[in-house]
Every structure is written in C-alpha cells, then in structure tokens.
Amino acid sequence: MAVLALSPTPAHAQREPFRDPDLPLAVRIDDLAGRLTPDEKISLLHQYQPAIPRLGLGAFRTGTEALHGVAWLGEATVFPQAVGLATTWDPDLVERVGAVTGREARGFHARDPAANGLNLWAPVVNPLRDPRWGRNEEGYSEDPLLTGRISTAYGHGIRGDHPTYLQAAPTLKHYLAYNVERDRATVSSVVPPRILHDYDEAAFKHAIAANAATGVMASYNLVNGRPAHVNPDLDEVVRGWTDQDLLIVGDASGAANLVGAQRYFATQAEANAAAVEAGLDSFTENGPDSAPTVAALNTALARGLLDQSEVDEAVRHVLSLRFRLGEFDPPGRNPYAGITPEVINAPEHRALARRAAAEQVVLLRNDGNALPLSAESTKKVAVIGQLADTLYEDWYSGTMPYRVTPKQGIAERAAVSSSEGVDRIALKELASGNYVAASTSDTGAVLTADAPAPGERTGLDVFDWGEGTVTLRTAANGRTVSLDQNRNLVNDAAQPHGWFVQQQFELVAQPDGAYVLEYAGNDVDEPWFGPDKYVVVGADGGLSLGAATPQAASKFVREVVRAGVDSAVAAAKEADVAVVVAGSMPFINGREDDDRETTALPAGQRAVIDAVRAANPRTVVVLESGYPYSGDWDTADLPAILWTSHAGQETGRALADVLFGDRDPGGRLTQTWYRSDADLPDMLQFDIAESGHTYQYFRGDPLYPFGHGLSYTSFRYSRLRLDRHAVGADGEVRVEVDVTNTGGRAGVEVVQLYSRQERSRVRQPVKQLRAFEKVRLGPGETRTVRFTLRAADLAFWDVTRDKPVVETASHELVVGPLTRELAVRGERIPPRDLGRSTPAQNFDDYSGVTLVDTTRERGTAVAATAPGQWIAFRDADLGRGARSISLRVANPDEPTRVQVRLGGPDGRRVGVVDVPTTGDQYAWTTVSAPLRGAAGRQDVHLVFEGRARIDTFTVEEQ
C-alpha cells in the first residue's frame, strides 16, 4: 500500500531539484537519493517507510490488496473474482475494471493518505496449474498467454494511460512457480528449465514487458531448492524484461522465513543481505514495525555482507515508484491527484460490476435450448440451493456496499419461490435430554444445551461444503456458529471468515447412532491448538471444545426438523423453472494457506440437484465457485448448466441478465475441468509436460475442455486462410477466418487460435493457445477475424544451448473446427555437444531426481535421493570416441557412484564415476573416470547408485 501522507514542505524545499517536475526523472531521483542519510535510506526498504520531515517526505506504505476491486479498506466496488474476470476473455473489459480499481484506490487514498496506499498488490499471475490450489480463485488461467493478456489489461487499467504519472502501481504476485499452500514456506517447486521458461516465467513476462506492471512480489516457496526471496532472477531476469524501474517486494514474513521455516541462513542479517543482492527492494516484515528489518540491514552493512551501493540501488527503485505516483509534484501536474472518495462505488462502477459479472458467466450445457428463459412462459421460478440467497466474499475481496443475490436478481424478473435446500436440525444432548439452543441477539452468545423441547431457539441449518465439513447457522438469529476466544461455541458470525475460519464443524456419526460435534477450523493443524477439538456440554450447559476424542465428547441425537431435499422439491414442483445455485464457500473450499482435497461437488448439494431435477424437468444448475468441479454430476439429465465465479455485488442481476437472455453468455473456461481427481497428478509435480497436465499436455477426456463455453446462438467457421504457408524464423503469418452467426439472435463468440507442432526434438504440447478475439455478431452477420502469428511465438526453450529456438517443423493451426498447415523454416537442433561444460539440469529426460540449489547465491543442480534414479541427454555426438567424463559433484552422504550408460538407464555401461563424500551439499569437487566404447550419436544416461548432486559435467573426446 503506497501511503503518501505528506508533512508540510519547508519553504526552501520548493527550490530543490527533486521537486522540479520538468527535470528528467533520473536527475530527480539522483538529487533526492543524494540528500538522504544512510539511516534514511535503510528506512525506505521496509513496507512502512517513515516520513522524513526535513525533506518534506511523507510516509509511504506498500501493499493495498486489489485483486478484483480494492480490498480491506471498507466498502468498495466488488467485481467478479480474478478467475471470473479472466473467464470473460475480454482484455478491454478487464482493463476497464482495472481502471476503476485504480481510481477507487486513489479515492481511498484521498480519504486517508496515512493508511490507504497506491502500491497495489495485484494481479496474481501464477498459472492455474492445479485446480486444487487453494488460491485458484486469485489467478486467471492455466495458460500463460491468456494469463499474460488479462494481467496486462488489468495492470494497464490500474496504472492509467498517462505517459508520466501512475494512477496506482500494480505489483504482480507471486514470483515464481507458486501453486501449493500446504507447507508453502518449505515446499520446493521442482521445475525443469523448459517449463520454467516457457510456462511459469512466461505468465509474468507479458505484463512486465508491456509496462503494465510496476513490480513483482517474491513468493513464499523455494524454486529448485532456493527460496524465491533470494532468487537472483528477480534482478537478472525480471528486470531484463523492461527498461522501466520495478519495485520488487517481499511477501509477508517472507524474509523471516529465510531464517525461520526455511533455515536457509543462520541470521537475519545474512538473509536480508542476500535478498537485497538478489533484487528485493522492500521487506514486508513485522507489520508496521520496521525496527527488526532496519537492524538486520544495518548489521549486514557493518559486517560487510551488503554494500552501500546495493542499498542505494534498492532505494532508487523505491523512489522511482514514488516519483511516478506524483508524490513530489504540484497537484496540478498530476491528473490523478484530484480524485476524491466520491468515486468509490460510483453508479458507473456499479454498472460495470454488473456487466463484468454477466460477461464471465459460462454456459457449460444447454440441451434443447433450455436457456434463455422466456419472460412470457416463465412466470414463477424456484431459486434453490445453499447459494441461492447469499453472496460470499473471499479473503482478498473488498467489502460489498450492497448485495444482489441470485434470488433477488431473478425476483426482479419473475415471481420466486425459494429453498436453500439445507437440513434444519435440532441437537438433543443424550446425557441431559436437553436441546441445544442459541441466542436471539444480533450479537449472539454461547450455545447452551438447556432447552427442554425443540423450538424457535433450537433450529440449526446445516450447510454442506464437502469433505465432511459443515457450517451451522442458528435459526434464532440467522448467525453462523463460531468459536470465541475461550473456545466456546457462539452464534455471532455473519459468514465464515478469518485466517483460521473458526466456523467449520463435522457431525460425526458414532457406532450407537448418536453424533458428536467435531471442530474443523484451520487452526486445529497448528501446534499450539492442542488436542481438544470435540464439543462437550459444561456444567452450566454451555457448549465448548473440551474433549480430545469422540469417546470423551458429549453425544447428541440429530433430529431433522425440516429436510432440505424435501423443501427444495416442494419449491421446485410449484414453479415453471427451477434454478439450483450450488457451489463453494470461498473461506472453506480452499483459500490462502489451505489447498482443497477434492474438486468434487459436495454430496449434499448434489443430492439437492438430483431431487430437484426429478421434481421439475426444467431445471437449470448454476455452479458458483472459484475453481473447476469434477465428478459425475454432469451425467445427470440436466437441461442447462452455468458456471460463475463469486461475482461480487451484482451477481444476482448478472445471472438474471444471462438466464433471461438480455446478455449472451460470453464466458469461456480458462482451465480444464477434469472428470475426476484421479486425473490430477501429485500437487508437487510442477513439470506439466512430464505429468501430462493442463490442456497443453492432457491427453485424457476432460469433463469440459479449456476454452469451452456455449452461446444462445450458433456459429459457423469458414474460409480459414493464411497469407503464406511457409515462414522463416523471423517472419510472421496472417491468419484469417470468417465467423458467421447462424442463429436467430445476437451472440458472443471467443475465436481461439491454437497451434500444434507436429515433429520436434522435445515433447510438445497437444495444442497451445496463440491468439484469441471476442466478437459480437448479430443474426446472420459474418465477420472476418484476423490474427498475426509470429514464428518467434512458436519458439520453445532449448536446453541443449540454453536459449529459445524456433525449430524447422510443420505446425497445424486450428481455429474452431478448421485446420491449416504452416511450414516453419527455423533450425534443426544439432546433436548435443557434451564436450563443453553441460549443466546437469539441462537433461532431456529423468526419473526420480530433483533439482536443487548449486550455491545459496545462484545455480541449479541435479540431486538423486535414491539409487537407480537417472538423467538422460538425448542425441549426444560423441564423435569417434569419448575418452573420459568429468562431473562437478557435491555429496554430504556416503561415497557412491554414477554410472554412464548409453541408450537407456539399463543400456550398455561405458563408465563408472566414483563420488566421494564432500562433507556439505555446497562443497563441490570435480571427479573423473575413463569411458570405454562410447562413440557416435548416443543417448547418454547418468545413473545414480546413491544420493549425490551433479552441477555440471564434461565429456572429453579422444
């Protein structure tokens, strides 16, 4: 959050060069940096930068959250979740959303400059590699091109279109290869070079290269054994994508993890010095208390771990951003300085929120043209389901100034009957015979087992979120049951919320037919929580956590007061159409620090869908979630299925706009919807080419494919044509296709261009998105859609020479059902030259090994963790004979050996290299061994007999 709280400027300061907006930016930065004392410079490297009154500098803070609107600062326009914004496939629309977000950030800043800053931590551009990632809702797509286009649009909107000044400053999160929440500070994302360059880095490069972002945030995880906060690529790669200054920030406590959970450095001084050397400019540590960071950096300087020149460089990056935000200029020069709080949730912003929420709706299925609904024939609609009459905010959501639920939005179009489809139960304690009762107060109170009979105060509505997890809402006051600080059960929560989400429970059936109530909040996994997670009834009748086992817990009889399925069926039977709104709760079904265990639809919600469909053949299912669903629910006889993200304040009206045909469903999926969790790899498998995942490499039959989405009309693709059928590596081809609306109503189509390289030295994607355009066509209208495809866009990372390469090959270009062949005259990758030093990480294939850090500062090596693991180097030219092989190795374990085999891991052995104990994983030595019978073009395999590390190797010819 950039805080520009200005102290009064001394009169003499008006003459200082850094305050002259007509001077070049570099001159102004130099002037201001030269006036700062060493201590003042260090103070600027923390998230909370203090004011420097003697120079008239105000305080400055990085880190306003703004993923889909401004968050955490009060009521603001809340747009669809980030994954929903991407599902529009509409960069122009997303740029408008970004512009509103930047404008409202300025409005908040004007309201409270000391708290509300202009450095925005958005967007998240980590590719959505695995739908089980808890933060899936925060990202855009499993495809790096689509992610790049949408993030560029959002970033451009945030920063504004002025050539000099920034409206606000977007920061990309989280660099790099971050897709796992469990143990995220200690997980090492193992990513081979080609996937790292072509997939993970590619998603970040788009917005940086387009100057649509002003910085990046380092991620919590390690990448190939090295913590991201000390990844030298921050400075050496990311900054190379642009000629503008970037402010590189740490994530909260990311630098502390270097000494804490990661144990990468012995002291914070060493850790902070390494982070600055790697390119980090701003530490996000200890909340507003900058003292520990300042002390560590000063210690690093005093011990010679850090040079003053490195501090000065980081300060320049900080100051550059503050200058571009207009902090040191007269308000009249900065076009954004006059924005006031009145812009927050302005009428035009609300209208844009409604449009964005409608544009991101995906029509997954529409058998027999069940949709759109006809206003003439649809007089009464049953709106059913756990999400039918509520809207949920997520962890990074803003506070909705109002909420139009699906039920409310549809009620503006037709008469409505409704049921949430959840069981209302009463819990009767076996020991006392009393029922659990709740307070009718708006603020709630401790639940007590003191009601002699069921009544108004004893009803508990059970919401099923899957994996056995439920939330309990009390009928007494409509509030959700939570825990207070003494671990009592209280009915005081408006919705599940908080870091540990203390509104989660499980009703656990016991062998005798009774139930115990188990607390399932996220904090039960914390070491300080303790064993007591089962509910007991105290002597005063109060419910609290007090038992470590089900046997020691209080037992209850679960009495169903009203069956959710029966209520749903009753509502459906009396309606012309039933709309079932099912889905996720963003604080429960995965979020930051909590990956989801399954992508299946909760069984309780599935039961409601099946029952409603049986009761009313005109059933429409709306899935509301921040991630794809798997399962067999789609095999049910459902006429129509829609998907929406948690789409913000206008969700209900937007859904009604689509259901009744005011807007054609223009959304298209940005992720593969797999049929089963079994189709997914281990979450720690980041090599998507090896595991065969995302649409690029998946060869199975998805439930719904990447890019899928239907319209209320139909389209015909014709005359796919290329302006040339062969192109050189530095050339480009123009691709044109005619798209015709063949239906009787206006509609939206997303025209997608894919390519597939038909022959290659490496495993190529099944297909890969190269371009797209969203078009709106009236009935019978034809439009020619044009794309320009550069041959350079077809390049991939060549590990044999550490550079991108355009191979000579034929490419199949695909648009809709049409295909054309394009011959690309690039180059043929020559045989490997192992006579020069070859990084071991640049293998062509592998089994079992992992990638690790060569040193704490830089480099990536290969490590074997068990005997029999291997790495392969295809098509190596060993000439007339190879004499010997030299390996640069480290080995903290017992002495071992590495075998050299040809043709395969079990192929002919031509050499064995003894690997001694080196005493430390960073203690490297070179070992050699003769080779016999190694000649010609060969696939060379290095097979480990035990644990060891290889950095580089060289084969010497005779």
UniProtKB/TrEMBL annotation:
Keyword Ribosomal protein: no
Pfam families reported in the protein's UniProt record: CBM_6 (PF03422), Fn3-like (PF14310), Glyco_hydro_3 (PF00933), Glyco_hydro_3_C (PF01915)
Keyword annotations from UniProtKB, A to Z: Hydrolase, Signal
Domain CBM6: 836-956
GO biological process, alphabetically ordered: arabinan catabolic process; xylan catabolic process
GO MF terms, alphabetically ordered: alpha-L-arabinofuranosidase activity; beta-glucosidase activity; carbohydrate binding; xylan 1,4-beta-xylosidase activity
Lineage: Bacteria, Bacillati, Actinomycetota, Actinomycetes, Pseudonocardiales
Function description: Catalyzes the hydrolysis of a non-reducing terminal alpha-L-arabinopyranosidic linkage in ginsenoside Rb2 (alpha-L-arabinopyranosyl-(1->6)-alpha-D-glucopyranosyl) to release alpha-D-glucopyranosyl (Rd). It is not able to hydrolyze alpha-L-arabinofuranosyl-(1->6)-alpha-D-glucopyranosyl (Rc).
Annotated family: Belongs to the glycosyl hydrolase 3 family.
InterPro entries xref list: BXL, CBM6, Cellulose-bd_IV, Fn3-like, Galactose-bd-like_sf, GH, Glyco_hydro_3_C, Glyco_hydro_3_C_sf
PANTHER family xref list: BETA-D-XYLOSIDASE 5-RELATED, SUGAR HYDROLASE-RELATED
Protein's name in the database: Exo-alpha-(1->6)-L-arabinopyranosidase
